[in-house]
């Protein structure tokens, strides 16, 4: 009766003896671990229930030993991956308890676990969406602020510099109006790809929204080097785009703020780069401008 019950529940169940050898697994455990009952019986628990930490991929503690030593149930830490018999991996949630006989002495351990991959995938997807722009897949404002804050902390410690580039496409509205919103979207995606191609892996390109992008040059020390990278970005964005048999060009205006000379705070660095970008627009577009004192006063209220 107990076996029928255990086979009809959705959770996987494995029982071991005091030495950690498997003496029972239910149907759900067979399905999840991909070990048949016949093959699993007599194996050490860790062979069949091969679990690792999802973050560092270190093997997890010996469940049987821990439960028997403490003689009470434990919920194993979340973030557990089970490596199945065929080598595939799933996220699981599990708990383990000692089994006692009628006299109260321990005679084994029962592990109860379930596949939480779907929930884990949904959580990862939500996390990704919260941190990325859904059109270009670039990191969003939230992530950028975090990266700039991190760059500030690092630069403060190392007494070093870094640069923030505020990039706004020139006359992007005309593209939308003349070629349609869908071509506008394709252009934004291609701009994102080109920007990523212009910078180092350790730098960050983010989309602020609309046709605005921000680049954090976290490892750039010299102003001349920042100017050189910015010129490369301008030239790369100018290369003609071809979508749906239409070829066209677009330029950009870029404002640059410098840490620590212009500011030592995330919002200030972004605002001053934006003010410098506005000045680059005023100077005729398709160029860049480093922040200069007072430029923020020239930006009309938006
Ligand atoms: N296709 C598309 N258009 C967008 C999106 N978000 C904002 N826009 C449009 O982007 C345009 C932004 O235009 P602005 O930056 O204000 O002006 P501009 O035409 O680029 O002119 P300047 O910036 O002065 O050079 C607006 O027409 C918005 O409707 C988007 O996700 N996709």
UniProtKB/TrEMBL annotation:
Transmembrane segments: none annotated. GO terms for molecular function: catalytic activity. SMART domains: GGDEF, PAC. InterPro entries: DGC-Regulatory_Protein, GGDEF_dom, Nucleotide_cyclase, PAC, PAS, PAS-assoc_C, PAS-like_dom_sf, PAS_fold. GO terms for biological process: regulation of DNA-templated transcription. It comes from the Bacteria. Residues 1-71 form the PAS domain. CDD domains: GGDEF (cd01949), PAS (cd00130). Residues 76-128 form the PAC domain. Pfam families: GGDEF (PF00990), PAS (PF00989). Residues 160-293 form the GGDEF domain. Signal peptide: none annotated. SUPFAM superfamilies: Nucleotide cyclase, PYP-like sensor domain (PAS domain). PANTHER family: DIGUANYLATE CYCLASE DGCT-RELATED (PTHR46663), SLL0267 PROTEIN (PTHR46663:SF3). NCBIfam families: GGDEF (TIGR00254), sensory_box (TIGR00229). This is Diguanylate cyclase.
């Amino acid at each position: 009766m107990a076996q029928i019950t255990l086979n009809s529940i959705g959770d996987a169940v494995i029982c071991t003896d005091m030495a950690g050898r498997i003496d029972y697994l239910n149907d759900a455990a067979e399905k999840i671990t991909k070990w048949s009952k016949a093959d699993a019986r007599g194996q050490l628990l860790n062979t069949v229930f091969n679990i690792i930490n999802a973050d560092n991929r270190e093997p997890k503690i010996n469940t049987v030993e821990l439960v028997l030593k403490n003689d009470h149930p434990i919920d194993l830490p979340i973030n557990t991956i089970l490596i199945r018999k065929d080598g595939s991996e799933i996220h699981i949630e599990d708990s383990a308890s000692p089994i006692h006989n009628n006299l109260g002495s321990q005679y084994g351990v029962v592990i109860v676990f379930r596949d939480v991959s779907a929930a884990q995938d949904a959580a990862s997807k939500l996390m990704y969406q919260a941190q990325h722009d859904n059109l270009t897949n670039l990191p969003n404002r939230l992530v950028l602020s975090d990266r700039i804050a991190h760059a500030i902390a690092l630069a403060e410690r190392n007494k070093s510099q870094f640069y923030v580039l505020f990039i706004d496409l020139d006359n992007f509205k005309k593209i939308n109006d003349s070629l349609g919103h869908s071509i506008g979207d394709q252009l934004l995606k291609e701009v994102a790809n080109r920007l990523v191609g212009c910078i180092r892996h350790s730098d960050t390109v983010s989309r602020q929204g609309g046709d605005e992008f921000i680049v954090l040059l976290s490892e750039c020390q010299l102003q001349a080097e920042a100017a050189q990278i910015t010129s490369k970005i301008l030239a790369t964005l100018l290369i003609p785009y071809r979508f749906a048999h239409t070829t066209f060009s677009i330029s950009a205006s870029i404002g640059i703020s410098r840490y620590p000379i212009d500011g030592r705070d995330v919002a200030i660095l972004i605002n001053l780069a934006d003010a410098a970008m506005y000045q680059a627009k005023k100077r005729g577009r398709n160029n860049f401008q480093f922040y200069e004192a007072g430029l923020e006063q020239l930006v009309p209220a938006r």
